[in-house]
């Protein structure tokens, strides 16, 4: 068979393995927290500039956007990698362990960034595409309601750097290295946080009839909230309502004035999500009323559902099968964690891909976690070939 050098193949990245591993280890050794990725962003921007990209820095914080156009097509694809690390003290004992004490790439964003750099170098060198390539190196994925995707969108990302479709990936502990997992439709959960302040009337613990006990009220609320999923959510749907904290009282002989608790709410469907909010608010209000107390509810909407559209997911699956074979492409189960990539998907169709990090990999956010270097070239080849396929030169 003739050597096919007209498209990106996995083998094209074989001789890049060492270089990509070195980049990944450098990033792993020099982790930076959300909103503080100054050096990481500069490192990324310098490389992209050296390969001929039109680079814009400081987009929504330390975000870096690299654009490369080729040919005449108006089509555009965006690929995003996240760059931030976590406030965790690394315990891997590896040679390339964090040199920044108390900060660690425990979610593998060092790997995601390296993969996109690998694809960037390849695509700039080969230029077998017709259209515009937009590479988004995003800060602060781990930052909750002030996360990088939201900040970059607020800073005009979609208007300043137009694209038709967007892709991103996350490593996946538990799946073999290099395996690619996909799921059309909902993949990762919407995550909302609810803070509840129960106001009663404090007094002497021996005379409860003269008080409104916020502690007992809050306890009833916690129990009542267990009904929100079991009795008020469609059983064919999935949701989680977990009360993660509760605080009330200082002394055994005092009924306190207030009690506080906080809830995390996870769902995979916008209607379910809206219903959960309605039911949680109703439940808290009615239990408060029954106890003669008042409850203040601060309902904070977090990241929406990561929803993979049909067309980009089919494209990603086809490219994945082309690169690693059908046997190494699987269907991903629903993941109750959340991801700020979902914000891009509210504006553009796209697909979030999961890439195996090894069956024995430590879990994400563990002090023992490390990104699997074996997956670097698979990820880079996936992005390179995906860009070529979406921006096919003879597509017209
Ligand atoms: Zn994470
Ligand atoms: Zn992550």
Automatic annotation (TrEMBL):
UniProtKB keywords: Hydrolase
Top enzyme class: hydrolase
Matches recorded under Pfam families: M20_dimer (PF07687), Peptidase_M20 (PF01546)
InterPro entries: Amidohydrolase (IPR017439), Bact_exopeptidase_dim_dom (IPR036264), Peptidase_M20 (IPR002933), Peptidase_M20_dimer (IPR011650)
GO molecular function terms noted in the UniProt entry: hippurate hydrolase activity
Domain Peptidase M20 dimerisation, first and last residues per copy: 193-288
EC number(s) per entry: 3.5.1.32
PANTHER family: METALLOPEPTIDASE, PUTATIVE (AFU_ORTHOLOGUE AFUA_6G09600)-RELATED, PEPTIDASE M20 FAMILY MEMBER
Name of the protein this chain belongs to: Hippurate hydrolase
Origin species: Martelella mangrovi
């Amino acid at each position: 068979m003739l050597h096919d050098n007209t498209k990106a193949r996995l083998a094209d990245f074989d001789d890049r393995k060492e270089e990509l591993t070195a980049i990944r280890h450098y990033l792993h050794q020099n982790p930076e927290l959300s909103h503080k990725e100054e050096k990481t962003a500069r490192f990324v921007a310098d490389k992209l500039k050296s390969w001929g990209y039109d680079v814009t820095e400081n987009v929504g914080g330390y975000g870096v956007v690299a654009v490369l156009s080729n040919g005449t097509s108006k089509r555009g694809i965006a690929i995003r990698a996240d760059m931030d690390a976590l406030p965790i003290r690394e315990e891997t004992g590896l040679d390339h362990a964090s040199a920044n004490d108390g900060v660690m790439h425990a979610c593998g964003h060092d790997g995601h960034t390296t993969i996109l750099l690998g694809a960037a170098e390849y695509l700039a060198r080969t230029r077998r595409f017709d259209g515009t390539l937009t590479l988004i190196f995003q800060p602060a994925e781990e930052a909750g309601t002030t996360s990088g995707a939201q900040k970059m969108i607020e800073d005009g990302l979609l208007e300043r750097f137009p694209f038709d479709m967007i892709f991103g990936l996350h490593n996946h502990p538990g799946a073999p290295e290099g395996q690619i997992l996909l799921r059309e439709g909902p993949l990762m959960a919407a995550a909302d946080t609810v803070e509840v302040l129960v106001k009663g009337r404090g007094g002497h613990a021996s005379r409860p009839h003269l008080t409104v006990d916020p502690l007992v009220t809050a306890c009833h609320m916690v129990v009542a909230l267990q009904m929100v999923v079991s009795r008020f959510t469609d059983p064919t749907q999935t949701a989680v309502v977990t009360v993660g904290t509760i605080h009330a009282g200082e002394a055994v002989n005092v009924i306190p004035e207030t009690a506080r608790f906080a809830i995390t709410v996870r769902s995979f469907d916008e209607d379910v999500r809206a219903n959960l909010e309605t039911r949680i608010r109703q439940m808290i209000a009615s239990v408060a009323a029954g106890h003669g107390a008042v409850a203040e509810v601060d309902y904070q909407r977090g990241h929406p559902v990561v929803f993979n559209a049909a067309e980009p997911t089919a494209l990603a699956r086809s490219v994945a099968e082309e690169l690693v074979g059908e046997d190494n492409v699987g269907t991903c189960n629903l993941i109750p964690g959340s991801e700020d990539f979902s914000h891009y998907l509210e504006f553009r169709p796209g697909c979030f891909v999961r890439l195996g990090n090894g069956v024995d990999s430590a879990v994400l956010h563990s002090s023992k976690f490390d990104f699997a270097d074996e997956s670097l070239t698979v990820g880079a080849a996936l992005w390179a070939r995906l860009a070529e396929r979406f921006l096919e030169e003879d597509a017209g």
